[in-house]
Amino acid sequence: MATTSPTPKRTRARKSAPAATDDDGASPTFDSLSPVTGDVVGTYPEMSREEVDAVVERARPAAQWWASLGFVDRKEILGRWNGVITRRIHQLADIVHAETGKPHSDAVLEIGLAIDHLAWAAGHAKKMLGRRTVNPGLLMINQKATVEYKPLGVVGVIGPWNYPVFTPMGSIAYALAAGNAVVFKPSEYTPGVGKWLVDSFAEVAGDHPVLQLVTGLGETGAALASSKVDKVAFTGSPATGRKVMEAAAKNLTPVLIEAGGKDAMIVDEDADVAAAADAALWGGMSNAGQTCIGMERVYVHHKVFEAFVAELTSQASTVRSGSDPAAKFGPITMPSQLPIIKRHIDDALARGGRAVVGGADAVGERYVQPTVLVDVPEDSAAVTEETFGPTLVVNSVPSMEDAIRRTNATSYGLGGAVFGKARAAEIAHRIRSGMTSVNSVTSFAGVPSLPFGGVGESGFGRIHGEDGLKEFTYAHAVTVPRFKPAMVLTSFKRTAAQDKSFTTLLSVLHGGKQLKD
Fold this sequence. Notes:
By secondary structure, the protein is α/β, with parallel strands linked by helices. It folds into two domains: 221 residues, 3-Layer(aba) Sandwich (Aldehyde Dehydrogenase, Chain A, domain 1); 177 residues, 3-Layer(aba) Sandwich (Aldehyde Dehydrogenase, Chain A, domain 2). Helices cover 39% and strands 19% of the residues. The strands form four sheets. Strands 13-14-15-12-11-16-17 form a seven-stranded mixed sheet, sandwiched between helices. Strands 8-7-6-9-10-18 form a six-stranded mixed sheet, with helices on both faces. A three-stranded antiparallel sheet has the order 1-2-3, with no helix packed on it. A hairpin with a 6-residue loop joins strand 2 and strand 3. The longest helix is centred in the first third of the chain and has 26 residues. Keywords: Oxidoreductase. Pfam families: Aldedh. Belongs to the aldehyde dehydrogenase family. InterPro entries: Ald_DH/histidinol_DH, Ald_DH_C, Ald_DH_CS_GLU, Ald_DH_N, Aldehyde_DH_dom, Aldehyde_DH_NAD(P). One of its GO terms (molecular function) is oxidoreductase activity, acting on the aldehyde or oxo group of donors, NAD or NADP as acceptor.
């Protein structure tokens, strides 16, 4: 039975009365509401296009100052910021809990991962992005060739509400470490988290507005995407991602899109069934299933299907949502997701699926209880569309080949997991996704040196790791002559003899390679 709470107000972020401004005009504001009680957590300005543009302009000189510091000084400042976040981790977790409803311990876990990523980005930026010499090749042997990765300037980051620290920090930390200024637009559901991050950075950066905040609803995000930033990093739905791309295209602004997933877990016949069930339960239910890299589909070898379902059912009996200390996860943060979750469950059941945990009555006014559906047709909404709720579809497969085929039969391609022994790693490498973990779930997200991102409807571009640092830079290649060349090829004074020498050299270098029949 679903747990419900009184509070008829269904909107999570709402406009409130205009606040007076210095020129006696009216500046609209909006409220961030607790998903648990419906109470107002905070009130923030709904910033206009003109205000967003002004923030971006203020970031320009700050970006120049920040870039001029170099890797060593930036590392020192980012390290001090990381120290502030670490010492006040519970303070920030309280805000995350208030605005999302997730348990305090889960908020601490999220922040802890962000802290580790910030440390890695600051500590590895010089090695990954600094100037290095590359081999010029025999044709250009007289040239010294170098490449370095320079900051773009000002990066706009549009963050999500489900992981309001970890996810946007995957862009913010790496963009800052690469030498950019950042304008951060947090979700309208979690503006307090964004403000805390920006305010805490200001404590270590002084008067330089290297990291700034803009708050508001969708219009504010659209204004940032179409502003004169040098890149936009967005996390959200594919539909909104397309709107961000359209807005950014007006200025030919490059974008990074992380747009969710429909991730699957594969369980082979030699898997540790208890461990696989535990991982599936966490991957599907933690954060109320509101995890882009969470598990939504599970394909289990028919030989262990019944044992897996029995184990999963048993473990799920100890897990429920709620606001009390014993609850394992909190409410659905965005109310508009509730009817989507209910539609997916109802469709699966109507088409012959069975609920072994939860079911049709699992969806309440604020909370959704764990739901495990089995024998669900592959063309049902619960299999093909992102549910973003605490549900799992578990289907039996006759072979791992069939499991791989079903896993890859989606327009998404973000993360995934494989449980097994003999073939698990081999299977993992055949999954069409940006990331896959073996005998664990979402482990790749916690490894700072690994890139994070998807393919297809899950978006493009990467955060984290070397790829994440380079995502917020442009490559600058320079050649400098080391000695006079034997022949100058880029000249109208080039002779026929030099042309012959050139083709002879090409034949020596490459002419011996034969095409195979």
